[in-house]
From TrEMBL:
Substrate binds at R94, R104, R132, D221. It is found in: Cytoplasm. Homodimer. Mg(2+) binds at D221, D245, D249. It comes from Siccirubricoccus soli. GO terms for molecular function: 3-isopropylmalate dehydrogenase activity. The gene is leuB. This is 3-isopropylmalate dehydrogenase. The record marks Y139, K189 as: Important for catalysis. Pfam families: Iso_dh. Residues 2-350 form the Isopropylmalate dehydrogenase-like domain. It is an enzyme of class 1 (oxidoreductase).
């Protein structure tokens, strides 16, 4: 089983190294064997090869059984033209592999209720999924550009969706809801945007094939409030690329920290890409401060969805919970009485827990 490891920038390599450690622990003592090969992406790739997604990286990723991704981009490259931006390498990879369905499970670990900045009673029992459309919307729509008109600088992007793009992610949402609590909340801004009107029409049409799933529609601005106020009311949220990007960072706080939120980007057939929801966190990079659990939990999703190793995925998740239950914390989820660990030590703790659980 081939895993392409694209660690990228900032804390990307630090947290990805811990996920690799966890995968090696799964392989130990006659476990499944993984062929892991690294390739450059993001600023690291641009600085080395003049391209944030070198052809050799794209090719290796396409041929792998799964991709473990870290983070791409830095504040310096973010403001350059697109082809020189680290993050653009990731956007291109998602597009090239047609990874349209990005699942971001938001689970309030009972072990972490005291670490959240939110009240225990507000987040207890939270278990929802944000399904973000990942290959279209205003991030990819054309025309886009900048210019000068009447002496004024202008800039424009295009929010664009086709009905096929909406229908396929909507189906993924209904299928996911069917395996959970059978509630799908479609999030749009149909009171303002043409794309959202199409989004809502298609949602209603696709819903006819899923009479067993309850579909409701909510506006994105209201959902950003309801997510904090009554998060237990959500099962699966399906939404567009930009709304999903923003809502899932907000939802991350229900888990205690953005360092806890994993993700799976899938297209139903080919290779899947697995990455923590957070970015390259330049403010803490190189300091052994980053929480690697989002990356480790992403590796668990990789085992489950791309490699079909359910038992091993569950074991990795159990190891994470055990380490939390034993009171180990990185700084972002620190609470009174807990033992503070750095990135590496947290990775070691999870790897050891995996080995112990395997017996
Ligand atoms: N998927 C990707 O590759 C993404 C890349 N980015 C890029 O990352 C860079 C930084 O972006 P930001 O907006 O600051 O978002 P960010 O997610 O990197 O950081 C936001 C805040 O969360 C903290 N944080 C993030 N991950 C953490 C972890 N594992 N443990 C503890 N704390 C953590 C950071 O220290 C920072 O204070 C930018 O260049 C941006 O373009 C941003 C989001 C996603
Ligand atoms: C390059 C960005 C769109 C990455 C990001 O913010 C994300 O995937 O959540
Ligand atoms: Mg984001």
């Amino acid at each position: 089983m081939k895993i392409a490891v694209l660690a990228g920038d900032g804390i990307g390599p630090e947290v990805t190294a811990q996920a690799v450690k966890a995968l090696r622990a799964i392989s130990a003592n006659n476990g499944p064997q993984f062929e892991m090969a690294e390739a450059p992406i993001g600023d690291a790739a641009f600085n080395q090869h003049g391209d944030p997604l070198p052809p050799s990286t794209a090719e290796m990723a396409a041929k792998a059984d799964a991709i473990l991704f870290g983070a791409a981009g830095t504040y310096e490259s973010d403001l350059r033209p697109a082809e020189q931006r680290g993050g653009h390498g990731l956007l291109r990879l998602r597009k090239q592999l047609d990874l349209y369905a990005n699942f971001r499970p938001v689970f309030a670990f009972p072990e972490l209720l005291g670490a959240s900045s939110l009240k225990r009673e507000a987040i207890e029992g939270v278990d929802l999924v944000v399904l973000r459309e990942l290959t279209s919307d205003i991030y990819f729509g054309t025309p886009r550009g900048r210019g000068v008109e009447n002496g004024q600088r202008h800039a424009w992007n295009t929010m664009r969706y086709t009905e096929a793009e909406v229908a396929r992610v909507m189906r993924a949402g209904f299928e996911a809801a069917r395996k959970r609590r059978r509630q799908l909340c479609s999030v749009d801004k149909a009171n303002v945007l043409e794309t959202s009107q199409l989004w809502r029409e298609v949602a209603i049409e696709v819903a006819r094939d899923y009479p067993d799933v309850e579909l409701r529609h909510e506006y994105v601005d209201a959902v950003s409030m309801h997510l904090i106020r009554r998060p237990r009311d959500f099962d699966v949220i399906v939404t567009g690329n930009i709304f999903g990007d923003i809502l899932s960072d907000a939802a991350a706080m229900l888990t205690g920290s953005i360092g806890m939120l994993p993700s799976a980007s899938l297209n139903g057939e080919g290779v899947g890409l697995f990455e923590p929801v957070h970015g390259s966190a330049p403010d803490i990079a190189g300091k052994d401060l980053a929480n690697p659990l989002a990356s480790i939990l992403s590796a668990a999703l990789l085992l489950r969805h791309s490699l079909k190793l359910e038992a091993e995925a569950a074991l990795m998740e159990k190891a994470v919970r055990q380490v939390l239950a034993e009171g180990y914390r990185t700084g972002d989820i620190m609470e009174e009485g807990a033992t503070r660990l750095g990135t590496e030590a947290m990775g070691d703790a999870v790897a050891q827990a995996i080995l112990k659980l395997k017996g």
